[in-house]
Amino acid sequence: MLLFSLLTTALGAGEAFAVTNLVTNPGFEQVDANGFPVCWEKAGWGNGTVAIGAVPGAHSGSKAMQVQVTGVTTGDDKVMMLENATCAPAVTAGHQYNLALWYKSTTPNAVLTTFRHDTVKGWQYWTDLETLPVASAYTRTSVLTPAVPPNTDQITWGVSVYGTGSVTTDDYTMDDATAPSGGGSCTAGAACTKGSWQVLPFLNPVRSMHAIVLNNGKVLLMAGSGNDPMAFAAGTFSSAVYDPAAGTFAQIPTPSDMFCSGHVQLADGRVLIMSGTKAYPAADGSHGYEGLTSSYVFDPATNTYSRTNDLNDGHWYPSATEMGNGDVMSFGGLRADSTGSVTQDRYSAAANAWMPMNQVKQTWSYFGLYPSMVLMQDGRLFYTGSHVFGNGTSGTGASIYDTVANTITDVPGLQSKDTRDQSMSVMLPPAQDQRVMTMGGGNVNTNVDAGRQTDLIDLKAASPSYTPGPLLPQGTVTGGATETGSQGKMYVSAVLLPNGQVFETGGGLHNRADPVFEASMFDPVSNTFTPGMATDPIPRTYHSASVLLPDGRVLSVGDNPGNGSFDLHLSVYTPPYLYQGTRPQITSVASSMWSYGSSQKITVSAPIVRAELIRPAAVTHSSDPNQRFVDLPLTVNTDGSVTLHVTSNPNIAPPGYYMLFAVNANGVPSVAQWVHVM
Ligand SMILES: [Cu+2]
Question: What is the pLDDT at residue 595?
Fold first, then answer.
């Protein structure tokens, strides 16, 4: 099979360009175990008798595809590209496409038909483009589509036969007529460099402050009582699973108040949830928020929670970090009596249970609320200094915990440790480089202006220390005023993108007030921000979250200002890379079970220059210490397939499900495929 199939089309006055063919397996040469061409499907309805499959007598190569129909009086039978994220050609709304194929036909009742994938409504019929005249010898037909309708990200097409006869087709081609240079010539105006936001036409059914991307591409939105004392008093706890592909929600029975719990995906793809709210503060001031000791596992396969054994201590606002062996360590938060927890809890992957107190090493140190604890390549944990509610911890405000020696060592260099409340820390791409960045932050108690400071650290250094990074770009606040001086943001969202950049969005200037409308891209290679990305029209301050979707876009949810309301709008950011020409597609993954140190073979629709694994988000309160981008060094084989080299270090890529992206030279990523690293 010709993987990087290029077709030369005459454009204009004899000018020839090499144009990328968007069709996967365009000549049917690649077949599955049953001999049926991969990335193609039989479709249709009605009463005819039909035979559809690969046949010899190809226009080129050894296989063609034939539809042979007898006795049809109602309905049709089709040969079409498979309607899935991998096989269906990706398109850009507003663009037109040249579709062409070779065919022979004995029936006048055959048309070239198209279907489109609506980002809200799913797959649906688009239009019939052309009737194919009867032809006894191979004939080429070519047609230009209308402009692709809004909200369309993929199309499929093929031949539909609605009368008796046979049609044989081969050598399909499709290219973007709007961007004939095949990438780099963006026609989407400002979106070409800034990206664009879409506020979805439906609302989040729950007041969720927790967003967890599941290994089926859906998003678990957990609210619990949703920071609503009335819901807590009524025992009304909620969560929902959002399906970005269908634009639908499933409401999930929620057995406990998971508001302000901790969460992380386990190695098997289930989500471990720990603690939550035992009590809101008492009206008489006799106690503050109290943390549950209960813990649950959410199973994406059944959309159900099941209870585990209890934690050794309450942890309201805990951290949760998956370790290289699949265990989960949890620190900080508030106990059942509302005081700070100094108990380290550890969930054993082998036992599928929280370990008894006497089996977990203890330092009896208080790491605060939602302390961001990042797993280092040597198995130690880096407390970045990102936390929630007030000042940083004593000392330098950042530290390294050696889980084996059971020692805590202060890390120097974090700027303004007491105004990093609801800053966000991310391990920068690639995880192999072991660099962490901490962005922004404020202080809900002093309520000073949130800051612009960022800090960078190289955890591979013998004695890691933070160094100041570039200042966060400034945006506008309430009323459209431009930020000045040292004004920045807390409630920062930082999302690792498949092109290796970090998208920074949302936030606010003060405690549950004054949303900042600003978004930027951070490039870990040049250590610079590109300011001026399109801004989310919805404020995203306290209890907001942003996550990378498997399609390469970013979903933002939540906002819980000081008046107690909760913004239920969802918005989706389309980064500039999705306007830079056609997307490469991962057309096959030899195995979806990946072991450490292995080599993995994939095929792609067009040349790629980079591939990586991105761990799905599990974010709340600007805290997702497990977020990481694991580079996959690649080899392009002589047959055009690509071999990816998987890290041998589970501390670089803790076990679990990852989104596999392939990226072309324009920085355009594929849609992700899920792989299971064990
Ligand atoms: Cu909160």
Answer: 97
Please give the distance, rounded to the nearest whole angstrom, from the Cα atom of residue 8 to the centre of ligand 1: 57
Burial environment of residue 99 by CB neighbours within 10 A (0 to 12, 13 to 18, 19 or more): buried
Distance from the alpha carbon of residue 281 to the mean position of ligand 1, in angstroms: 13
Give the model's pLDDT for residue 509: 97
- Expressed in angstroms and rounded, the spacing between residue 264 Cα and the centre of ligand 1 is 17
Q: Which residues pair with 508 in a beta bridge?
A: 490, 515
Centroid of ligand 1 to alpha carbon of 193 (angstroms): 34
Specify the pLDDT at position 179: 52
User: Which residues contact residue 92 at a Cβ distance below 8 angstroms, ignoring those fewer than 6 apart?
Assistant: 148, 176, 178, 179, 188, 578, 579
Residue 577, phi then psi, degrees to nearest 5: -65, -20
> Is residue 288 within 8 Å of residue 337, measured between CB atoms?
no
Q: Which residues of the chain have pLDDT under 50?
A: 1-18, 180-183
CA 260 to ligand 1 centroid distance, Å: 6
Å from CA of 370 to ligand 1 middle? 10
DSSP class of 374: E
Q: What is the pTM of this model?
A: 0.76
Amino acid symbol at 656: G
Bridge partners, 154 (sequence order): 90, 117
- List pLDDT tens digits, range 509-541: 999 999 999 999 999 999 999 999 999 999 999
Cα-to-centroid distance, 356 and ligand 1 (Å): 28
**DSSP states of 473-523:** PP-B-GGGPBP-TT---BS-EEEE-TTS-EEEE--EEETTEEE-B-EEEEE
Ligand 1 midpoint to CA 389 (Å):
9
pLDDT score of 184: 55
Q: Report the DSSP pairing between strands 381-383 and 373-375.
A: antiparallel
Question: Distance, CA 354 to ligand 1 centroid (Å)?
Answer: 24
Candidates 426, 451, 569; CA nearest to 508 is 451
d(CA 315, CA 84): 42
Per-residue confidence (pLDDT) for residue 19, from 0 to 100: 57
Interval between CA 282 and ligand 1 midpoint (Å): 17
* Residues 108/131, Cβ–Cβ less than 8 Å: yes
**3-state secondary structure at position 431:** helix
Distance 344 CA to ligand 1 centre (A): 21
